[in-house]
Write a structure and sequence with these properties.
Blueprint: H1 2-19, H2 22-31, H3 35-56, H4 58-68, H5 71-74, H6 76-82, H7 94-104, E1 110-113, E2 119-120, E3 124-131, E4 136-142, H8 146-168, H9 175-189, H10 192-206, E5 212-213, E6 226-230, E7 235-236, H11 240-245, H12 250-268, E8 270-272, E9 280-282, E10 288-290, E11 296-298, H13 301-315, H14 319-328, H15 338-353, H16 362-375, H17 382-401, H18 407-410, H19 412-422, H20 424-427
Parallel strand pairs: 5-10
Antiparallel strand pairs: 1-3, 2-3, 3-4, 4-6, 7-9, 8-11, 9-10
Helix pairs in contact: 1-8, 2-3, 3-4, 3-6, 4-6, 4-9, 8-9, 12-17, 13-14, 14-15, 15-16, 16-17
GO biological process, one term: ubiquinone biosynthetic process
GO molecular function, one term: protein kinase activity
Organism: Midichloria mitochondrii (strain IricVA)
């Protein structure tokens, strides 16, 4: 029965793909010879995909959002366009949301709840409210029946994935593995207590840091399908014109943003990995405010040290050590040549580091390194890929805000201090940079 249902849904999916012209676009993509032509068409295709994925359901939206974090699988152009799936998704009627709230929390403890959602994602939407204690809050509510819709949708996604694997033999994409990861992370996201815990942990990690703030959680109202947290007013970090109009110091904001990212990733090993517009604000004190904690990155101690050692070795132009570190970490297969890999690392380092200091991009360096690692049959862990993707976002936002500022030059003192504390005697070598 499920096979018949999925077959029917597949026909509907194929009909949409054909009517939107995607099938013809994919055929044309195979025939285009020039890299520039492929880029232009890929941009067009991925924008179409962004527009039609919401029609297929939450699991397909989640797949797009997941692939937005994996440029190693889909490429930079597709990844950048898929990021737009985070914004402006359809909302549910408030009567449905109010029914959920009335069933799950003491609704009489709220003076008012705004009927118009201020934000909507694939599985939830957010409403502004005020408690009887005059606390202004944001209420995030799972959309009704979303878990059942997601699981039904996931069955179709697996069906499509298996067919794609058989027809096109695209083992490199690891479709089954990707779908399993999407299922696991999405079902966790559907328990809003997990997101509340992530926000609480990030708040605890950053509580003593200057110039950064994470809203507090109202645990008494938070359930598996409702998250209530402090309402914070601010200007979106992406809105450069409003920041300038408010008289804010853009260079100072960029530095604060960069430092808090490094504190999260390298000091705490727990970082906000969903920095799309609306998730980062700047308040009247020029503090960086983080919102929406559904996607968080984790780095264990060994991964933190691995990346720090890699970056340090590149800065020292010690490419043999870069290769050796991959070997020691267990990434490098015995069937490959460590000496050839060291030469590849040299080609990456010299290309990136010979640029003017204000044009050096550490995320570009890591991106090239991970791509090269794939050519040597190395499996780079997903947390490191998520880190590199988030670093790219941090760099991109920083360049957009102030194209004369390079965040890596701004935070040199921080890097030196961190290396000295965490890499011991070898870390002191960074002092000369």
């Amino acid at each position: 029965m499920q096979v018949l249902l999925n077959t029917f849904r597949l026909y509907s999916l194929i009909f949409t793909i054909v009517t939107e012209g995607l099938l013809i676009d994919f055929i044309r993509l195979k025939r285009i010879k020039t890299p520039e032509g492929k880029k232009i068409l890929l941009d067009k295709i991925s924008k179409k995909i962004v527009s039609i994925l919401p029609k297929f359901g939450p699991a397909f939206i989640k797949t797009g959002q997941f692939l937005a974090t994996r440029p190693d699988i889909v490429g930079d152009i597709v990844s950048r366009n898929l990021e737009k799936l985070q914004d402006s998704l359809p909302t549910c009627d408030f009567s449905q949301i109010n029914a959920i709230l009335s069933k799950s929390i003491a609704i009489n403890e709220f003076k008012y709840i705004d009927h118009v959602a201020v934000a909507a994602a694939s599985i939830a939407q957010v409403h502004k409210a005020e408690t009887i204690n005059n606390e202004v809050v944001a209420i995030k509510v799972l959309k009704p029946g979303i878990e059942a819709k997601f699981k039904s949708n996931l069955s179709l996604l697996r069906f499509v994935g298996r067919l794609t694997q058989k027809i096109f033999n695209v083992k490199r994409l690891k479709i089954e593995e990707v779908i399993s990861r999407i299922e696991k992370t999405s079902l966790l996201e559907m328990d809003l207590r997990i997101e509340a815990a992530s926000a609480d942990k990030l708040r605890e990690n950053l509580i003593h840091d200057e110039n950064v703030y994470v809203p507090k959680i109202f645990w008494k109202y938070t359930t598996n399908n409702i998250l209530v947290l402090e309402w914070i007013d601010g200007i979106p970090l992406y809105d450069r014109e409003r920041l300038l109009s408010a008289g804010f110091n853009i260079e100072s904001i960029v530095k604060k943003f960069a430092v808090t990212f490094f504190n999260q990733a390298y000091r705490d090993g727990f970082f906000h990995a969903d920095l799309h517009p609306g998730n980062v604000l700047v308040n009247a004190n020029e503090d960086i405010i983080f919102l929406d904690f559904g996607i968080m990155g984790h780095l264990d101690h060994m991964n933190k040290l691995f990346i720090a050692e890699i970056l340090k070795s590149f800065l020292e132009r010690n490419y043999d050590l870069v290769a050796k570190l991959h070997l020691e970490a267990g990434y490098f297969p015995k069937s490959e040549s460590i000496n050839v890999f060291a030469l590849s690392c040299r080609s990456i380092g010299e290309t990136v580091l010979n640029k003017p200091p204000n044009q050096v991009s550490i995320s570009a360096l890591l991106k090239q390194l991970f791509e090269t690692a794939k050519n040597f049959n190395m499996e780079i862990q997903a947390p490191l890929l998520l880190l590199q993707k988030t670093m790219m976002t941090v760099e991109g936002i920083s360049i957009y805000l102030d194209d004369q500022t390079n965040i890596w030059l701004l935070i040199k003192p921080w890097i030196k201090k961190w290396a000295k504390s965490n890499l011991g005697i070898r870390g002191r070598l960074l002092q000369k940079y």
